[in-house]
Amino acid sequence: MMAGHDSSTEVPGAGFEFRLLGPLEVRADGVAQPLGGAPVRALLACLLLEPNQVVSMDRLIDTLWENEPPASARTIIHGYVSRLRKLFGAAGEQAEIVTRPPGYLLRVDSDRIDAHRARTLINRAHGMEPAARSRVLAEALTLWRGPVLSDIASSRLYRMVAPNLDELRLLALEERIAADLDLGLHHQLVLELSTLVDRHPLRERLTGQLMLAHYRAGHRAEAQSRFHDLRRRLSHEIGLDPGPELRELYERLLRDDPALRHPQRRPEPGFGIRRPIPAELPPAPAGFVGRQRELAALDTMLAEREQGSSLLAVVTGTAGVGKSALALTWAHRVEHEFPDGQLYASLRGFDSEREPLTPGEVLTSMLKALGVAANTIPVELDDRTALYRSLLAKRRVLVLLDNARDSEQVRPLLPGSAESLALITSRRRLDGLVVRSGARVLPLETLPTETAIELLDRAGVPGKSASEPAAAAQLADLCGGLPLALRIAAARLAANPARGVSDLVHELTDERNRLHALDIDDADTSVRRAFDISYRSLHPVHADTFRLLGLVPGHTFTAHAVAALCDTDPHSAQRRLRALALAHLVTEPEPDRFGMHDLLRVYARDLLAAPSSIATEALRRLLNHYLVTADHARRFLRPARDELDFSSGTEVPRPQITDRAQALEWFDAEWPNLVAAVRAANAEGMHDLAWPLVRLQFNYLMVRCPWEDWIRIYTDGLDSARAVDNPAGKLLMSAGLGVACSRSGQLDAALAHYDESYRVAVQTGDTARLAMTQVNMGSVLFRLKRYEEAKVHCQDALWVYRSLGDRYFVAGALNNLAMVEQVNGELEEALAHLREAEALYRDADDLETLAMVLNNCGEVSIELGRIANGERFHHEALDVALKCGSAMRQASAYLGLGDAARSRGDQQVARTRWDTALAIFEAEGSPRAAEVRERLEDLSRPPAEGRLADV
């Protein structure tokens, strides 16, 4: 957004719009989109009411079901979110639902939501001249299209939200009428106000406005009559008298107070000597884009100021993120709010060439701008501060302090007046101002891709990005959304118009050259130079930590991971990370989880220089942290059916994990880092760590089933196992690839991987491993409808495991044999084998596989005509799946419960259960979604086959 004084908010152009102020609507390029039933609409409304904020799963459940949520509430919400994500698929950067513990976050420009746009307009109208105020408030009022959220009026959310939004509309209406009264439009308002008072007979402000309009229009008797009507109604209905403001207005009407006869006008400046009005703001930056949410937050702070309290805002962020540009753009936009002037100082808090300005130097300059003669400026700092605050008392001045180093540099420069505002930018968080001065902190993040491309166009060659849209998006990504880097990239494109965007992308793709490619002749605007200044101010210990963070493969990290990386304890690591966060060299997107901008990561890596033993050992320590913690956590999910054991690594820092829920929570949070760690170990030749780290994820993968990541890391793991020629590694990696391919519907690939694991087992002569590969071969051959071959493998494996006394693997062979028997019509034999497998999995406490076997028991029971038994098995499977966190097993249970309902002839219940199953399967990317769609299309189809065990 360019600087200026336009009083209206920006309304997004073509794309997605969200409407809450009436029936809930989502429009794409003006066309209403189908949203589904009331629960899905209520969920979306809940996220829209708090855009860019995490809404917890518990609050979503409470909103949708109040006091009686179903046991599968979380799973159902996952399904609803999956549907909404499909709806937003075409929205691109405009709207996205992000999973963010402990719930979900809707990432969207709030101006695309009518309720938030209305609030922005209402807040912006505050303090404007009457004509502009009336126009802006009228614009806000047009956003209401009828009763708020009328299509979900029966929901708890409606009862919580609708009254507030209705009240907001009435407040805006009253403010617009007040502005029109100030404009002298009382004759035109009499009819409108009469209708409004009849509709809201107990609303005192509307009655007062109608009384005033009548009085100014010469209807004195009608004005008094309206007061008596309200007094009688209040007395009869709620036993109250009108409030003091309305009583005072009535008394002024009775005595014909001359001040009531004409609209109030803003008083002219007082008589006497006029003080100088400073106007020190530098020009607003050219080509400013985006930052609507941050600008709106500053607008809101200005509009909601409390009487008697000073206004103080701190814009913080890493080097080059655009703090000064935002502050100057907003300052120019609201300068009319500060008729007594605008003061500005660049505090040089992070200037590589000059020392930071002292508070005394800044005060001297500001006092001169306020008209104080140089020879009368006090010598002592406290005296200068006192004079400065005295001159600002009762004045409305904007004080912009750019590039502050710390709270102590800023504190003497803060105005004491409640009418003035101080806006500060800094690379540090300035927590001292928050604690001691009540500052409001606005952290500045990098730009989203769409906005970053817009900045490339405005700062470079207009239209060039549009000619190469894919390359422009890649360039924005390589610059990490950092405005400084984007402006340098745009300058390089502008300097050589013949150069294509893809040419610059190619140059930046190599991380080793990226920072060099973002240098230009003006060293002060180099990305590396900006980072250098922040880095050089670090304590040596914090500088060492920052450099090692460049080795972290993932995008986030915890204190325990950094403790391992830096060979220290978690408490010390936490202190170091907090210090780096204060300097905006790392971020803390979630409590106790930290991250780093991609360009800062490249910069940190560059600081490590050439590969060294220090870097290698640090990376090994980090990988060992992941190995030890993953090995510990996986044992809470399923039995560890291999010889890998890293539990002796007690000296390795790891978080406390004591139950299944904590283990799943750790895996969920660390999963992207574990994937990146496997890839890094493989790339760095640490093959002795890579394939074991992959295997330690198997129990988690069986519960959560992220197919693409599963195949990716197991492919890396197989490469590592082959590189060191480790037979156990090759067998486990190829078997794990087979499981992933089989469950995701890639049956031919699964057979090839299982066949490789089978051949390795034959070569090693390990009877138990050979039987395990036969169980897997049996499962995929069954899915390929090669039933006789499948039966032979299952029977051979069962014989071996019974002879070895391995009860756990006996259970897997029994389950797979039962599936062959089921398809051959040997239902009683199948159920007997399944019940035996059920007992064995209960003994092993393998809940994920137990849920699968219970679902299989339910399917066979329904096929035998034992509907009640089938439902009981599926209900128990659902309970077990909820306990272990397996969405796939929950979906299978709902599928079976739908089959049972259909067998009883209850098609409506069947459809409801299958709808839930479909939502989960689609969310998980499972090929089994096709089965459910077929059932929903034809409720007379027979029940599905049972599921097979993979080990």
Automatic annotation (TrEMBL):
Residues 6-108 form the OmpR/PhoB-type domain. Belongs to the AfsR/DnrI/RedD regulatory family. It comes from Saccharopolyspora spinosa. Gene3D superfamilies: P-loop containing nucleotide triphosphate hydrolases, Tetratricopeptide repeat domain, Winged helix-like DNA-binding domain superfamily/Winged helix DNA-binding domain. GO terms for molecular function: ADP binding; DNA binding. This is DNA-binding SARP family transcriptional activator. Residues 6-108 bind DNA. InterPro entries: AfsR-DnrI-RedD_regulator (IPR051677), BTAD (IPR005158), OmpR/PhoB-type_DNA-bd (IPR001867), P-loop_NTPase (IPR027417), Sig_transdc_resp-reg_C-effctor (IPR016032), TPR-like_helical_dom_sf (IPR011990), TPR_rpt (IPR019734), WH-like_DNA-bd_sf (IPR036388). CDD domains: BTAD, trans_reg_C. Residues 258-277, 926-951 are annotated as: Disordered. Residues 817-847 form a coiled coil. PANTHER family: TRANSCRIPTIONAL REGULATOR REDD, TRANSCRIPTIONAL REGULATOR REDD-RELATED.
